[in-house]
Amino acid sequence: xxxxxxxxxxxxxxxVKWMVDNVRKGAEEAGKNPDDIYVxxxxxxxxxxxxxxxxxxxxxxxxxxxxxxxxxxxxxSCHQNPELLPEELRxxxxxxxxxxxxxxxxxxxxxxxxxxxxxxxxxxEHEALMTxxxxxxxxxxxxxxxxxxxxxxxxxAGVDQVAIQPIRSTREVVDQVAKEILPHF
Length: 185
What we know:
The protein has 185 residues and is mainly alpha-helical. The chain has helices spanning 13-29, 57-77, 87-94, 110-114, 124-127, 132-138, 144-157, 170-181; strands spanning 4-8, 38-43, 45-47, 140-142, 161-164.
């Protein structure tokens, strides 16, 4: 029934293609032309000075909440059949299946702990799961040249628009995207 879709934390072309293929299938089943579905991918953004800077606490704080949340959603969507996830990202994504579980909290207030700082703060228990591979699969993180290549690959995989979810200072993120990325498009 939709005219478009918002992908959440989908940057890696294999991940984008997997999601877009599912959207296209749903559109066809609903009698819609899949080519008419507008695809937006919402993700976090962080520019590094070098490729080696990605697995740092600073980067994880800047994009980690998006990495954990989106990876958790991918894992939970396929937890009964992980084979549905793209093979090259499957193990990393499945590792996030339980990151928001709080079984010892009362059911009435569990959500308060689960979503404390949601998309705002890195949880220490999530940090160990955040490898360069999964950070770059779910966020626009890397050098300017890497991020520009990621955006092109996203477009080639079926994304019409990218939206940035600021986790650090909104003004800082918007200014950096405007200055460093937008002039190339």
